[in-house]
Specification:
Distance between the termini: 8 Å
Helix content: 55-70%
Strand content: under 5%
Shape: globular
Number of domains: 1
Structural class: mainly alpha
Number of strands: 0
């Protein structure tokens, strides 16, 4: 289902190519029609608005939202394993799942990058994709709720993702994530200190990112045999 990949493209760094192809992406979403009508309309409004924005401003907003601080991080395992060694093994396992589907991972990108994960889902049978998305929907919903509270239009992309799986969202998990996010210090000085104190994969930091309470391990590629695959 190409809609998964399209939602992933919408949360990648904005480019001129994305803007030029936005109408084609909208047409695919309308054709596949996997979202409720009102939510689909809101998503398409966001897409048109993004395409019409000044590109430099759009890029600046993107960096501010997703690249400064960990609360809105698009790296899934950041919210589960933090900087512990478990994150490295989880990435190796995820790469193996990608390879099983014939998806080659660019060495410049980490495999737990949400848009890349969504590209993987786009080449899975629909029910398998929905099941795998359900493994991370608690993270997706928490990020979306934080973006909504911040007043960011990007929240609609995460709302759409949460609707593409039947897994029920843990509202208590989201509530705690919002509380912890409100207590975060996102000043440049605090962010510099936060990153300096936790070198990547040093095996020392065993906590998560601090904004996803009680995050549970993922089980990508689990057996969803009770569901009938749909191409």
């Amino acid at each position: 289902m190409r809609s998964f990949k399209i939602l992933g493209l919408l949360i990648t760094y904005p480019t001129e190519e994305l803007r030029k192809n936005m109408e084609d992406l909208i047409e695919v979403l309308r054709r596949e029609h996997v979202l409720p009508g009102k939510l689909e309309d809101r998503l398409i409004t966001f897409m048109k608005k993004l395409a019409a924005r000044n590109l430099l401003w759009a890029q600046e907003d993107y960096v501010s939202l997703f690249d400064r601080g960990r609360g809105h991080s698009l790296y899934l395992f950041e919210h589960i394993h933090g900087e512990s060694r478990d994150r490295g093994q989880a990435m190796v396992d995820l790469i193996d799942h990608y390879k099983e589907k014939g998806l080659a991972v660019n060495a410049r990108e980490l495999p737990d990058f949400l848009p890349l994960f969504l590209e993987y889902l786009s080449i899975c049978p629909l029910e398998e994709a929905q099941g795998n998305l359900g493994e991370v929907v608690h993270i997706v919903a928490a990020i979306g709720a934080k973006l909504k509270k911040r007043g960011s239009d990007y929240c609609v992309v995460f709302e759409a993702l949460a609707k593409m799986t039947d897994v029920r969202i843990d509202e208590e998990f989201v509530r705690k994530a919002l509380i912890e996010e409100a207590a975060r210090d996102d000043s440049l000085e605090a962010l510099d200190k936060e990153w300096a104190e936790a070198p990547a994969f040093d095996g020392i930091g065993d906590t998560d990112c601090g904004t996803c309470p009680s995050a549970r391990p993922l089980d990508f590629g689990a057996n969803h045999s009770e569901l009938s695959p749909v191409k």
